[in-house]
């Protein structure tokens, strides 16, 4: 039975909505669930294979670890190095691996770890080794001797040596636009672009700090370099012009990589990921020059990688922790062999020749037919009238059981519920009476609520006065009970803390107001 | 001149015999509403004072479709007989007593005499007493019998009462009763004409310890129910068995034992008495269902309670949003009407416990607590362009009422809370302001604290939807001025800007940020935010107003007026001093003048010259309301007449409306009005009037067509032309009345449906006006008789001329 006016449950005051912090993209980036493995030694390099399933290789000390790109589990371990290995990298088809090393040699393995070739030429450690994008036969390496060498892998011969860098070469990147164009970065603060058909650099970009990482952005027109705590973006086609400087890291940026953001409803967009000694991973939108996401890791990060399928994002730290971030909702698809169990027909509903056959009356399903039927597009759906759930305190208020309603609200221990009930009781002039009627247990409930929320700015105006009134009304009862006294003491603590805060705020106001006054002139 | 805003619930209404119409006493007229549409059909105009009761003749035979006659009684001392289907007055009977209530016991036709002659029709009337002897005893009411057939007032007074009481008759006309203080008095109207003289002798008294408020008779049995002020319902069964026994039985039996008559007090003539108590406040009405199985009761809680008479079980129809006043049954068992105190009549289906339709009247003023001293607000605002008035309602809302059509437009719920009838109001919509075009509204609601805890002032901004009065909440601001209350809210005339002034000593200017179209196509609604705050010497700000062009903001800071530039929030000037704090300000458009009102022991109405920044002229008058004409420099003020010593009866004080020219202290016109306390004034703009006048009178009113609205303390209003008292003949707008729609099909139609439309095609033809080319017979016979040809020859020509094929006239 419903009257002419419908029952209105009490409602909380409206408050401004919190501004939506998470854009869909930051939601994507925060959807990576991070786990870690520990290797004890710094992880200097991570390289993903561009071919699906995007296996990746991780270089840590004298070992290369390869991981499966779908299950993110270790696949094989290569320990064929006499000294520290650097820059383990996949051949674009994923069938070979190459790595430099402290010895100055570049070694080629198959994924199982059998050494196949050894490129000897560098006299100093080789920190950078890379295959070109679409070429299985050559390798570019950069060493601490300041030389860049271009190798023919099959014959283990050096094709060209490019000299120009005056310090250790620590990074480089093949251009996605041209197979001849390479960029290498060195500790002499310079990034040099090489055309392999020439021996002298095509372009020299002064980064200003020892260059730790360099990567071409997917279009090939831009180059991102990292050195010191800045990441710089250069327009290569436009003559090496500095486009943007990102200074959001606090310490040296150690590695860069390019990843794709898969935002539902939008086309996939490339982002630049950078990691730094300060332990932060930042995702940079180089179109709008904005940091779109920041993640903090509990260690200094040395290397970063992101799967081309965006299914995982990995980072390696200086203390040997290897962080694997798996994207939530990215399902590991089981291999299909044999008929899928899920597709088996339900009992009683036979499937013949691809058509649903009518069930026979001796089947159980005959009697259950149509029960799970979903309505089709054009059907008129008659919904069951929704039962409005009226909260307990509203039911009690409706019956004018004021104290019971108050206690029921207190039990929820949610100020969003309690305060509106209190306001309603005030409007009915029943607040004081219901406080008087509370028994000791209920009073404790109230005191517990008060000492928790009394200084919450949103409700302080009401609760402060109310607390004072409660203490006046029920002083004797409170003195008699230990628990209640404890709550009063806590309340006192909360209030004095609040007074402290207010005082310091006033001090700040006192400092600021003359400044504002002067600024206003 | 338009009058409206009548109280629909002053007296109980009456249903017509077929239950399709509802006759409602509205002031001096009886308004007839259609029960299916809830719209006004027509009015019975004739009484010169308030109509107090309507009695419809019941349908004698079901076959006769229209038995639409009714009796009405009025305070003007007449009883009138009407044919309400054609709204014609048939008969007027002079009684010469102000009639407060009337009952015609044998309405369905007086019983036949022993001789087979039809008896006369008698009415019991409750009138004010004219006898000085009775008045000296403090009895100002009396109950009389009037012979309607012979138009004679019987000499014998049935009873004398402290004040004129409401008479209640039983369905069958067997009993008539009244309540007086702690007693129910019941008479049994006689069958014989001659016995009416001695009616007063046959009386039963039933006693109670509390004051009664209402009573009701069972339709078939000897059961009477009485409700008292504490909410109890007493039900006596078998009353008057002794008293109304055969008159021949003179020897009375002895007083029966108490045990045999449970609950009956003293020597009361009843068999038993039961008490039911559910209502927490006064029982306002009681009514038995037509089959006698249920008793309906209602009261201040706004809940209709249906009691099962045998078991006492209750069912409820709650949340009417206001106290209930009257309950009237219709001949149709599924239709009843409930009059609620907020001037609304609900048509209820009691079988389904459902409200079918509501006939809303203008919301009545209600008692609000004195929140702040001298708050200038009568709780309404006028949209002058649309002819709408917005009134606050008791259940925390705002009603939009069309002044021109005397009809509710819509209601807006300001505070979403269940209405509770407390003794004292704790939540109230205190202020209400509308922007000039009526597209934005601002309300202030106040929640009063309990012992200093939990008070709240809430400023709300509303935006109008597609049609006027359809408001949606835009912004809520809690405690906009801290703990301090808001004294005034005013809209900027052209921009989305609002000023709110507070007793806490500051005023705030609020502006609306525009809606922002977001990148993803969603619309981010713009809200209102504070633009600036101003204070003047920490004085409480008591009133605020924008000038007509919006360039100046005047804020009254107690005794002085401060003028501000609202855009830069800079103080421009300070004016004068008044003896009492100013409570209201208003700029007079088209003149450099500002009007201020202060109340208190030393009230003053002042006109300030803005160019000289000085007082222009002032009167020591207590102004209740003021209004400025937007097109001229005239303004009207409603002032209260000094409280008369003589008229101490009513709290409604009489007043004066004064029309001034801004420069001139001598009023142009004055009108004397009643119930000025709590009244209001407003000017309405022309459009509607010229339109209605064009349609009704067919001529264009070339002159100023501004109208002045006066809303009195009871929210009755009058719209008139203040500048030209002569042509106040404007009839009601043509869409004032609504014909009764959807005549029920009957007879053949009801059984077989409507016949195909077989009306003559002739009707569909356009009527073509014909005109004779000339009048040949005029010349035919002219000339002297001796030159005329013989008549036999002329006859042929004459007839041919008459039968001439006439040509079509193009008009």
UniProtKB/TrEMBL annotation, chain A:
WD repeats lie at residues 119-161, 162-204. The keyword Repeat applies. Gene3D superfamilies: YVTN repeat-like/Quinoprotein amine dehydrogenase. It holds the Pfam family UTP15_C. It is found in: Nucleus, Nucleolus. Coiled coil: none annotated. GO terms for cellular component: nucleolus. InterPro entries: U3_snoRNA-assocProt_15_C (IPR018983), WD40/YVTN_repeat-like_dom_sf (IPR015943), WD40_repeat_dom_sf (IPR036322), WD40_rpt (IPR001680). It comes from the Eukaryota. Signal peptide: none annotated. Keywords: Nucleus, Repeat, rRNA processing, WD repeat. SMART domains: WD40. PANTHER family: U3 SMALL NUCLEOLAR RNA-ASSOCIATED PROTEIN 15 HOMOLOG (PTHR19924:SF26), UTP15 U3 SMALL NUCLEOLAR RNA-ASSOCIATED PROTEIN 15 FAMILY MEMBER (PTHR19924). This is U3 small nucleolar RNA-associated protein 15 C-terminal domain-containing protein. It comes from Amborella trichopoda.
TrEMBL record, chain B:
Residues 250-270 are annotated as: Disordered. InterPro entries: Beta-prop_WDR75_2nd, WD40/YVTN_repeat-like_dom_sf, WD40_repeat_dom_sf, WD40_rpt. It comes from the Eukaryota. Keywords: Nucleus, Repeat, Ribosome biogenesis, rRNA processing, WD repeat. Residues 397-640 form the WD repeat-containing protein 75 second beta-propeller domain. WD repeats lie at residues 44-92, 276-317. Transmembrane segments: none annotated. PROSITE patterns: WD_REPEATS_2. It is found in: Nucleus, Nucleolus. Residues 251-268 have a biased composition (Basic and acidic residues). This is WD repeat-containing protein 75 second beta-propeller domain-containing protein.
């Amino acid at each position: 039975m419903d009257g002419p006016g419908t029952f209105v449950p009490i409602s909380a005051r409206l408050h401004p909505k919190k501004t939506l912090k998470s854009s869909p993209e930051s939601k994507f980036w925060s959807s990576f669930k991070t786990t870690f493995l520990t290797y004890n030694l710094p992880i200097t390099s991570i390289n993903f294979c561009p071919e699906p399933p995007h296996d990746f290789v991780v270089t840590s000390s004298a070992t290369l670890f390869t991981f499966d790109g779908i299950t993110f589990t270790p696949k094989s371990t290569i320990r064929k190095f006499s000294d520290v290995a650097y820059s383990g990298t996949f051949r674009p088809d994923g069938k070979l691996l190459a790595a430099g090393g402290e010895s100055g040699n570049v070694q080629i393995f198959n994924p199982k770890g059998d050494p196949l070739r050894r490129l000897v030429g560098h006299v100093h450690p080789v920190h950078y080794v890379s295959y070109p994008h679409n070429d299985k036969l050559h390798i570019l390496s950069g060493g601490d001797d300041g030389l860049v060498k271009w190798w023919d892998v099959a014959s283990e011969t050096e094709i060209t040596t490019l000299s120009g860098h005056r310090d250790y070469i620590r990074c480089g990147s093949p251009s996605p636009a041209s197979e001849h164009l390479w960029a290498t970065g060195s500790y002499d603060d310079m990034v040099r672009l090489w055309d392999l058909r020439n021996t002298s650099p095509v372009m020299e970009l002064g980064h200003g700090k020892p260059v730790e990482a360099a990567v071409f952005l997917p279009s090939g027109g831009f180059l991102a370099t990292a050195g010191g705590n800045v990441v710089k973006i250069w327009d290569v086609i436009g003559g090496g012009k500095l486009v943007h400087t990102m200074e959001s890291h606090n310490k040296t940026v150690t590695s860069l990589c390019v990843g794709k953001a898969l935002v539902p409803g939008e086309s996939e967009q490339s982002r630049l990921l950078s990691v730094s000694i300060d332990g932060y991973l930042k995702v940079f939108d180089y179109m709008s020059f904005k940091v779109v996401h920041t993640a903090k890791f509990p260690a200094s990060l040395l290397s970063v990688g992101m799967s081309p399928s965006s299914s995982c994002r990995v980072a390696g730290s200086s203390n040997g922790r290897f962080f694997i971030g798996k994207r939530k909702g990215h399902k590991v698809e089981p291999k299909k062999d044999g008929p899928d169990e899920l597709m088996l027909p339900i009992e009683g509903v036979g499937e013949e020749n691809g058509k649903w056959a009518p069930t026979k009356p001796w089947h159980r399903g005959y009697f259950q037919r149509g029960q799970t039927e979903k309505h089709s597009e054009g059907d008129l759906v008659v919904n069951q009238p929704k039962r409005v759930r009226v909260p307990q305190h509203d039911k009690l208020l409706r019956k004018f059981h004021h104290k019971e309603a108050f206690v029921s609200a207190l039990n929820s221990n949610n100020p969003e519920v309690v305060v509106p009930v209190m306001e309603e009781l005030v409007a009915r002039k029943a607040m004081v009476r219901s406080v008087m009627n509370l028994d000791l247990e209920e009073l404790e409930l109230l005191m517990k609520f008060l000492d928790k929320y009394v200084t919450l700015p949103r409700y302080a105006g009401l609760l402060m006065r109310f607390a004072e009134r409660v203490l006046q009304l029920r002083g004797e009862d409170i003195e008699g009970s230990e628990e209640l006294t404890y709550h009063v003491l806590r309340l006192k603590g909360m209030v004095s803390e609040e007074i402290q805060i207010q005082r310091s705020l006033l001090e700040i106001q006192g400092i600021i107001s003359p400044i504002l006054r002067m600024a206003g002139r | 001149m338009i009058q409206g805003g009548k109280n629909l619930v002053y007296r109980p209404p009456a249903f017509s015999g077929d239950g399709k119409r509802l006759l409602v006493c509205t002031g001096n007229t009886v308004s007839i509403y259609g029960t299916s549409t809830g719209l006004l059909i027509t009015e019975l105009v004739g009484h010169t004072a308030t109509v107090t009761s309507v009695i419809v003749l019941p349908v004698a035979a079901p076959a006769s479709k229209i038995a639409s006659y009714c009796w009405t009684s009025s305070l003007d001392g007449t009883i009138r007989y009407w044919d309400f289907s054609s709204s014609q007055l048939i008969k007027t009977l002079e009684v010469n007593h102000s009639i407060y209530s009337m009952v015609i016991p044998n309405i369905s036709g007086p019983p036949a005499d022993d001789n087979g002659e039809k008896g006369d029709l008698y009415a019991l009337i409750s009138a004010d007493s004219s006898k000085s002897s009775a008045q000296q005893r403090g009895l100002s009411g009396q109950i009389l019998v009037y012979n309607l057939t012979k138009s004679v007032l019987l000499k014998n007074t049935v009873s004398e009462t402290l004040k004129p009481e409401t008479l209640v008759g039983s369905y069958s006309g067997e009993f008539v009763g009244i309540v007086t203080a702690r007693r129910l008095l019941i008479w049994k109207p006689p069958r014989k004409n001659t016995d009416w003289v001695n009616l007063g002798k046959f009386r039963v008294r039933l006693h109670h310890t509390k004051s009664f408020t209402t009573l009701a008779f069972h339709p078939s049995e000897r059961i009477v129910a009485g409700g008292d002020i504490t909410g109890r319902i007493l039900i006596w069964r078998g009353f008057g068995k002794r008293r109304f026994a055969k008159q021949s039985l003179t020897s009375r039996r002895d007083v029966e034992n108490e045990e045999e008559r449970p609950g009956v007090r003293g020597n009361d003539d009843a068999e038993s008495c039961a008490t039911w108590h559910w209502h927490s406040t006064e029982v306002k009405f009681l009514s038995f269902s037509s089959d006698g199985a249920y008793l309906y009761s209602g009261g201040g809680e706004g809940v209709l309670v249906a009691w099962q008479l045998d078991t006492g079980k209750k069912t409820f129809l709650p949340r009417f949003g206001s106290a209930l006043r009257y309950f009237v049954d219709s001949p149709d068992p599924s239709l009843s009407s409930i009059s609620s105190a907020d001037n609304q009549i609900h048509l209820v289906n009691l079988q389904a416990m459902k409200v079918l339709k509501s006939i809303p009247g203008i919301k009545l003023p209600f008692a609000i607590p004195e929140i702040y001293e001298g708050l200038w607000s009568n709780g309404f605002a006028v949209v002058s362009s649309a002819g709408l008035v917005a009134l606050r309602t008791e259940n925390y809302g705002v009603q939009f009422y069309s002044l021109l059509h005397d009809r509710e437009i819509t209601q807006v719920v300001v505070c979403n809370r269940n209405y509770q009838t407390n003794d004292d109001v704790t939540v109230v919509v205190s202020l209400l302001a509308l922007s000039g075009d009526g597209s934005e509204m601002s309300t202030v609601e106040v929640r009063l604290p309990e012992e200093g805890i939990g008070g709240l002032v809430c400023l709300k901004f509303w935006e109008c939807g597609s049609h006027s009065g359809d408001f949606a909440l835009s912004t809520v601001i809690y405690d906009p001025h801290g703990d301090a209350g808001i004294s005034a809210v005013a809209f900027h005339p052209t921009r989305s800007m609002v000023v709110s002034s507070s007793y806490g000593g500051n005023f705030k200017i609020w502006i609306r940020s525009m809606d922002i179209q977001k990148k993803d196509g969603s619309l981010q609604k713009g809200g209102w935010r504070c633009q600036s705050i101003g204070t003047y010497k920490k004085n409480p700000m008591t009133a605020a107003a924008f000038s007509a062009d919006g360039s100046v903001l005047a804020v009254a800071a107690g005794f002085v007026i401060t003028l501000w530039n609202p855009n830069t929030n800079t103080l421009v000037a300070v004016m004068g001093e008044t003896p009492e704090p100013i409570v209201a300000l208003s700029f007079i458009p088209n003149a450099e003048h500002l009007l201020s009102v202060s109340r208190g022991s030393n009230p003053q109405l002042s006109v300030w010259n803005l160019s000289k920044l000085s007082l222009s002229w002032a009167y020591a008058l207590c102004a209740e309301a003021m209004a400025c004409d937007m097109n001229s420099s005239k303004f009207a003020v409603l002032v209260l007449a000094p409280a008369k010593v003589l008229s101490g009866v009513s709290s409604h004080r009489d007043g004066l409306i004064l029309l001034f020219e801004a420069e001139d202290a001598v009023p142009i016109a004055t009108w004397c009005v009643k119930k000025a306390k709590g009244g209001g004034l407003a000017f309405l703009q022309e459009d509607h009037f010229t339109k209605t006048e064009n349609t009704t009178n067919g001529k264009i009113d070339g002159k100023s067509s501004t109208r002045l609205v006066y809303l009195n303390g009871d929210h009755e209003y009058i719209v008139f032309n203040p500048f030209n008292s002569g042509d106040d003949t404007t009839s009601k707008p043509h869409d004032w009345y609504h014909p009764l729609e959807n005549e029920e099909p009957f007879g053949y139609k009801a059984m077989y449906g409507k016949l195909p439309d077989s009306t003559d095609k002739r009707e569909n033809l356009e009527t073509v006006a014909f005109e004779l080319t000339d009048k040949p017979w005029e010349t035919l016979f002219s000339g002297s008789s001796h030159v005329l040809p013989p008549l036999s020859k002329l006859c042929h020509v004459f007839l041919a001329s008459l039968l001439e094929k006439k040509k079509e006239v193009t008009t």
